[in-house]
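Hi R.,

Here's the chain you asked about this morning:
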Amino acid sequence: MSNSARQNAIQAITSFKDEANIDYVKNRPVEFYGCNVFDDKAMRARLPKDVYKSLHKAITLGERMDPSIADTVAAVMKDWAIEKGATHFAHIFYPLTGQTAEKHDSFLMPDGYGGVIAEFSGNMLIRGEPDASSFPSGGLRSTFEARGYTAWDVTSPAYIMENPNGTFLCIPTMFLSWTGVALDKKTPLLRSGQALNRAARRVLKIFGIEPELPIVSFAGLEQEYFCIDHNYNFARPDLQVAGRSLFGARPAKGQEFSDQYFGVIPQRVLSYMMEVEYELYKLGVPVRTRHNEAAPSQYEIAPLYEVSNLAVDHNHIIMSTLRNVAKRYGLKCLLHEKPFHGVNGSGKHVNYSIGNRELGSLFDPGATPHANAKFLVFCSAMIRAVHKFGGLLRATVASASNDHRLGAHEAPPAIMSIFLGDQLTEVFEAFRAGRVENAANGKTARMMNVGVDTLPPLPTDPGDRNRTSPVAFTGNRFEFRALGSSQSAAGSITALNAMMSDSLNHAADYLEKQIASGKDINAAIQSYVEHVIEEHSAIIFNGDGYSEIWHKEAVRRGLPNLRNTPEALPELIKPDVVALYEGNGILNRAELKARHDIYLEQYCKTLRTEATLVIRMARTIIFPAGMRYQGELAETAARMKAVGLDIRLDMLRDVTEQLRGMQDAVVRLETALSGVDGQSDLPTRARLYCEEVLPLMGEVRRYADLLETRVADDLWDLPSYQEILFGK
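And here is the predicted structure, written out as tokens:
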């Protein structure tokens, strides 16, 4: 091999020595867990009792914090941080780029006598003012209106982030314009949580339940990722810039043997995982699971359930930690949804439920008629929500990277449907038919009577797992499987909260009207469930979501198939979605339009970057390698012919044909790219990128990948899939 990066990667892999610096005997996780978090334990120990009670009440009950305590909280938080070596504090927020953003400010201020003092006031804790001019706003403000404000989110604890040269205090915040417009992903998430609480309490009140704690959404976010040697990443401009390989022939072996899935974790990767977990334990992130995923060099990390706002914050920390710790082991963590063609991509499954500590999950079937009636109402509300707002849910996972994954036999299709399992589906179908029958024991059919009947005992997972369903009921929660690995879960959870708020308000209205007309609560619930199943059962599908039969059936049922991002994003600005978000005080029309435009612009920029890379790599790396090999073949043929030896020229003709085809495809791609760039209308530009540019990128790749299987290995500079994926 002539390529030094390929040689360096192989050398790094073969010579790796596990120099463990984590001792779980001396440093027991049960003792240091959460040590870098200003959590309830730290606040209770350090804050004055009256201040702690006031702040604790604001956090647990979702009430507005008394601003008079801010200075005290800030002073105590500052002292705690400085004890841990912090010199700076940073307001952490999630702008509409989908990434984590931070601005660091020092605690140290001149004292006027040649020295410094540590200063951190309540105002500095509650509000920050980062320059917002370079963040996307979607027209919500002019370029010269650069102000953006961060506002402390008291419900998510502050924490210390460590660096080899020191530490700094991180304060989770919302990010808004000076006019109060939401410029981030956290603000609408928090607003949607308030809407969900209001709606859920209306329904619970009908059942005679008025909990002290607010009803919140919970999320468990399963994070998939790829981990490769960093030398391979440096040798691949496409991985470096685009996060995915734009070229690469399939290796002789992929994932078809299923020997990676849940296999023994390679030593270097396991050491890396252990240090990731060590860092996350200190930050109070309840990571529980680690394992090999289906594709070569693909892995998963999963935490326990948490309140969704905290789960989103922790997931951003997980992604940052995965990237940062990888560097210490000579690895590169890839969070792109489809970094390698021909093997599974990576997702981030959202396990979603609603409830609180008093009530548990409201999606959990109970053991009594009363508990089951409550479950049926909340489950019916979810069915209605997904049917009515499936397009919105699809739009929240729309991106150029996730388009490569959805429907690719590793993720659910772009058609939103809901999987209940056969047993629960039979129960709901019995309501629609006005009867109940238990197929398992062959009992005679009879009327289903809420308040008398109990559901058949449901196991933890009432049915086999359906990997092809975007939304699946899995015992006491719904699993939303369409979210991409690099995406923030905030948008999808905001939509789920909003959808459920709408459906629960609809349920409350329906039940209140039925009861007002003279029906008892059980008859009202029975009528409501029958009504929902009659109107919205089209969304229920327990079969194979990949099958062509389902795609045809979905059309017959009126379910949209939004195959790509340009088709999906307009759902954000449909009148019913605008009414949903505005009616619940989550986002207004302008804020939704801004998100539509920003995400569409990001789609266009992503494809333009990738197309430019395809052209540049084809011309400067792949074509020269092919030309050198073509020259060697031609020279060898000429020498053999000169001495009277006969030689077949099939290989030379094949290489020449692929080079010519790739050269023509590159020219067509350049022409198409130039034409799309001339379009001023954003939706038109996005559609053309999808329909014209993307297929031409694939055509260039097809020729290049064929060349990779023909050109001599010592002339091919790009690391192969075989090297990247199987170099452990």
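One quick note: Confidence is low (pLDDT under 50) at residues 435-447.

Cheers,
M.
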